Structures are given as structure tokens and as C-alpha cells.
Amino acid sequence: MNTLFSFRRCPYAMRARMALRYAGVPVEIVEVSLKNKPAEMLALSPKGTVPVLNADGVVIDESLQIMRWALAQNDPDDWLLAGDSFAALWMEKLIEGNDQIFKSALNRYKYAERYPEQPMEAYRAEGALFLQKLDELLEGRDYLMAEHPSLADIALLPFVRQFAHVDREWFAQTPYVRLQVWLQRLLESELFISIMKK
Fold first, then answer.
1. Within this chain, do residues 187 and 90 fall inside the same structural domain, yes or no?
2. N or C terminus: fewer CB in 10 A for the chain?
3. pLDDT tens sequence across 148-157
């Protein structure tokens, strides 16, 4: 049996759970208290971060790797964009930009009091550059890379959601209308709602 150690509000865990659910991989989810991590999880992955997947003895402790592993089992709607190597490569770069650059801006924006070097608005402006790029990608289509959801949409969703929720009023007034619609569509999807149930 596959076991996923997860924390419901962690964006990395969210995207891993969405991929596992989409792929139809049977998995037992163990909700973890980040203040009291289970010994079983720490024995599998000493770094102590979620998510951690124990896939029949194979331990995967990076959310993107968990997503790829799930899609290797089953990818019915072609989240990996298998027939378009250029789009698949561009998708990799987009996820990399999210995980390395946007996530850093998000952390500083969300926890601005921990980063007094600049005002919160400066960190928000940093992140907004990425949001603008995403909004441009959505011109003429509903999803970032294709006419259907891809790995990029699901990998980025929890982070864009978190950024938007720091100051919902600000986000609602941005010119990123296509991105606002994209976010709402995914948050209202059966897939997202199903993984957020307690």
C-alpha cells in the first residue's frame, strides 16, 4: 500500500495529493502535525518536510517527483503534454520559475515582518511580475500550456492561491483577469475540492 505523509494546507502537499488523486493511485494519507512529526515519516525522510510518499518501499520526498511518479502510473488527460516536446520543455521552465523564484517572493510577501529589509509592497511587486507572465500565457485559452490542465497548472495552483489569499482585495483589483478566472476555475474543480476535504 502507498502511504503519503501530508499536511493539508502545505502547497507542496496539495499538488502531490492532486496528482495522486488524478492518476487514481490508491494511497493512504497520513495527516502530519508539523510540530509533532511521526517517527515513521522521519525514518523514511530525515529532512522532515512534507509530502513524503512511501510507494511500496520506494521513498519519494519531493512534491514534483511525487507528481511525476503518479503521472507515470496513469495520465489519462495528458498532463505531461507527451505529444508536444516543446510545450513539455517550456512547462519545465515555468515550474522551475515558480519553485525557485516565485516561491521566494511569496514567502517574503506572506511573512514580510520576517524580512524588514523592504516593505511588503516590494515583495508583492516581485511576485506580481510572475503573475503577469501567467496571465499572458492564458491569453486565448483556459489553461497555462494547453486547452486542458497540465502538470504546470496543478504544480503552480497552490502557490498562486496562497499569493492571492495574502490580500484578496488587492488580487481582485489587479489587471490579471484571466489569471483570476483560471484560479477560480481550478479552486472550484472537483479535483481540488476532493483533496481539501478533511
1. yes
2. C
3. 999 999 999 9
